[in-house]
Amino acid sequence: MAKYVYFFGGGHADGNESMKELLGGKGANLAEMAGHKELKLPVPPGFTITTEVCNYYYAHGRKYPDELKEDVNKSVKRIEELMARKFGDPVNPLLVSVRSGARKSMPGMMETVLNVGLTEKTIPGLIRQSSNERFVYDSYRRLIMMYSDVVMEKAAGIEPEDNMGIRKQLERIMDELKKKKGCKTDVDLTADDLKELCKLFKAKVKQVLKKDFPDSPEEQLWGGIGAVFASWMGKRAVSYRRIEKIPEEWGTAVTVQSMVFGNMGNDCATGVAFSRNPGNGENRFYGEYLVNAQGEDVVAGIRTPAPINEDSKSEHNKELISLEKWHPELYKELFEYKNRLEKHYKDMQDIEFTIEKGKLYMLQCRIGKRNGTAAVKMAVDMVNEKLISKEDAVLRVAPVQLDELLHPVIDPKLELSAAVLAKGLPAGPGGATGQIVFTANDSVEWKKQGKKTILVREETSPEDVEGMRASEAILTARGGMTSHAALVARGWGKCCIVGCGAIHVNYSKKEMKIGDKIFKEGDWITLNGTKGNVYEGKLTMMDAGSENKLLNDFLKMCDSIRKLGVMTNADTPDDAKKARQFGAEGIGLFRTEHMFYGKNSEEPLFRLRKMIISKTEDERKKALAELAPYVKKDIKATIDAMDGLPVVIRLLDPPLHEFVPKEKDKLQHLAKELKISMEELEKRAEALHESNPMMGHRGVRLGVTYPDVTEMQVRAIFEAAAELLKDGKKPYPEIMIPVVCDVAELKHQFEIIKRVYAEVLKKYQIKEIKHMLGTMIEIPRAALLADKLAEVSEFFSFGTNDLTQMTFGFSRDDIGGFLPDYLNKGMLADDPFQTIDQSGVGELMKFAIERGRKTRKDLEVGICGEHGGEARSVEFCHKVGMNYVSCSPFRVPIARLAAAQVVVKEKK
Ligand code: PEP
Ligand code: MG
Question: Quick one: three-class SS letters along 527-544?
């Protein structure tokens, strides 16, 4: 018979940390903390109902397995024994919390109900027990608020009118009462005030939801359990799962746990802490706590929490007394527990704790979320501390987190002269600029219109998650480093500032005030999420530098593990230099045509145009002779910048008509130079027009039609190399032919190349220039005939942009019109132009590699399509036995990491 309920407490646990799939992250970690012999921490006893029950519940029309009731009752009994209290007992009542817990943490996405078991009958008992009437009614009003919202409204599927859910209505009643009694905060309400409030609450619940608030502990317990399961399919959870790609069948577990109270008086508190700083990775204990409060108060960001120690102090909480000063002995105990936990889990821990009447309880621990900077620092530090191995360290940083490290920052010069409008807590690093929006919906809508937004809120709630995702950055007035906004943003590596007390948001007017200044929806602001600074207007962003010692140390660890080479796609000496700083081991794709675009391209472009428009052989030869020095100079500078590393130079690829000018004056200049009339020029340009240029006169086909174009390029390459050799350099060009579909094309081109090579050797009086000749694989036919191509080709480089285009028959320039539909309808899991389609394109690649290597054992194989810098594709390239990947300079670090991760994963 399946075991549906796992108990923990009293130094024992049925489950452990490895059972996350069954118990959820929270349940598994509670079991570990409570039961593992190295830990045995003071965890209030409880039990976890497994994720299998969640799946059963949905598969059986929201019904539980028959035996669940009895299992739950038995476990409640065990809690009662350990706590020496009884659930529903009028004298000595036990209260429990009911919490959700999926395999992976989904901050704030699902439901929690606290103080379950408080009823008219048990209230007097708890008052006697705690000698604190105020606390009991405060707990009761919280139960009514949470329960009516979570169980009676959301789980029951009731859609409130005008967005005025029961919780908001109850909050309004509470605010009115506070106003009436002249109270500033919740803490100022007296026991009698709260008693009155509970009455008002219950009446409101009855009026709005047409049901009495349940006064039976069992009904409350089962209501809570059902609501947690129901929340798995709640709107927020579903949308978060979609973004995070969490499968629906994982389900959530439910943990029922004995309540301990951080709100029983001024000798009680609750807090959240990280064993290391999640914002910068420093190995310093970091956390916040609130006296006389329940856990939800810290995360909700309603009151500013106090720091647990000196290291946790900030602008906003520096006046508040730290836990270390308030109760040094409890701080010491907590510090010891965090050490034990970190040593045990060998990773940074995110801890929740409660102090009830001077006793410390551990309520939760989990691997803490961190941003990219912190992830890299912790990984490197933990290796140095001998806590983890290099292999473990490599898995600690997600490839997207590196992206975040290399993310834009505000141009430092501009930032220096910009006035800081307001300061908040630096919850998510990097810089961002955008137009202000005040609602999550607006953020989503504006993004659709291609606008960049910054979502400004008093505080965020889980309902805002889609909008947070759509914005460039998030700015909130309230909350600490552990508030919802901070947690979510950190998980995504998004720029975020929280607790920015200087901003005052007026949602109805869609504006915010900072001092005397008013900012309206659509106004531009800029955030520095690393410092917590808010600036007026639009400041320019800059790429982050590559001079990051920690990152370099980390990437060197990756290099010592990975097998796959990492090259770069670079078309200019500047790009080549940058890529080398990022660790590229050569250029895997130098697109020759790029010298005809952008900076300094006027001169060579004009000569290329002359060549294109030429009609006679004479005309063309003359134009080519003029063009050659430019090509040679460019190639030489790039090979030189790579200083002995290989440079794969691809011969001219795009259809020639792309280069024909459109402007009249340029056409006239060309006609004059060629000594032909405008009519003649237009006729020649017209003749170059193609209906489907992507499959037209491009790639190797140009070299077949115009062998002297190939000849000019190849001579430029070899002469550049020869001159470098003479200068004592170590040039290593590899010549690559694009858009090949048959070996005959290669043979034709290689013959020219070999002849020119011999001529250059002779001209420069040298014996040899180290080089290789190869082909791109971009057409399915080339993949199928790989064995033949390998007869002459020394290397293959997969051009997966074209290979994807031609395998799917999806034009790479026109996918915008239909690909989103395929993705939204779930017909394709990923954009195949971003991540290699392993089942189609990937199969062709595998086939080509196998066939190619059958003919030529040492065939070198790489990839130079955009996929070469995408983590999952890099893993695939390793698995199919490629020698290297090549990607844009900024993605080189990601490829180095992904290539190392796949090696470690394979070993595990
Ligand atoms: C490719 O097709 O993948 C490739 C690298 O070439 P291009 O993008 O220049 O067509
Ligand atoms: Mg291509």
Answer: EECCCCEEEECCCCEECC
Are 896 and 583 spatial neighbours (Cβ–Cβ below 8 Å)?
yes
Expressed in angstroms and rounded, the spacing between residue 116 Cα and the centre of ligand 1 is 61
User: Which pair of tokens denotes residue 420?
Assistant: 């800081």
CA angle 232-237-238, nearest 5°? 95
Q: Model confidence over 658-686: pLDDT tens digits?
A: 788 877 888 898 899 888 899 998 998 88
DSSP per-residue letters across 706-732: -HHHHHHHHHHHHHHHHHHHHTT----
Predicted local distance difference test score (pLDDT) of residue 736: 98
Catalytic-residue membership of 54: no
- Which is the closest atom of ligand 1 to the Cα of 778? 2
Query: pLDDT tens digits for 83-123?
Result: 999 999 999 999 999 999 998 877 777 788 999 999 999 99
Q: E-assigned strands of 411-514?
A: 420-423, 425-428, 431-437, 453-457, 473-476, 495-498, 503-506, 511-514
Residue nearest ligand 1's atom 6 by CA: 799
Confidence class of residue 481 from pLDDT cuts 50, 70 and 90?
Answer: low
Give the tokens for residue 827: 């017909």
- Hey, what are 629's tokens? 């020095």
pTM of the model: 0.80
Q: Ligand 1 — pocket residues by CB below 6 A?
A: 589, 591, 653, 778, 799-802, 864-865
Q: Is the pLDDT of residue 299 over 70?
A: no
* Residue 354 and residue 269 in contact, taking contact as beta carbons nearer than 8 Å: yes
For ligand 1, what atom is nearest to the CA of residue 738? Answer: 6
Banded model confidence at residue 491, pLDDT cuts 50, 70, 90: low
User: pLDDT tens digits for 355-412?
Assistant: 999 999 999 999 998 988 899 999 999 999 999 999 999 999 998 788 777 777 888 7
Q: What is the whole-number distance in angstroms between the Cα of residue 798 and the centre of ligand 1?
A: 9
Reduced to 3 states (helix: H, G, I; strand: E, B; else coil), residue 509 is: coil
- Pairing outcome for strands 733-737 and 647-650: parallel
Neighbours of 294 (CB within 10 A): 22
Report CA 519 to chain centroid distance, whole Å. 30
**What is the spatial distance between Cα 594 and Cα 270, in angstroms, rounded to a whole number?**
60
Smallest CA separation from ligand 1 atom 4, residue: 799
For 453, the 3-state DSSP assignment is: strand
**Contact 289/297 with Cβ under 8 angstroms?**
no
Residue 484 appears among annotated catalytic residues: yes
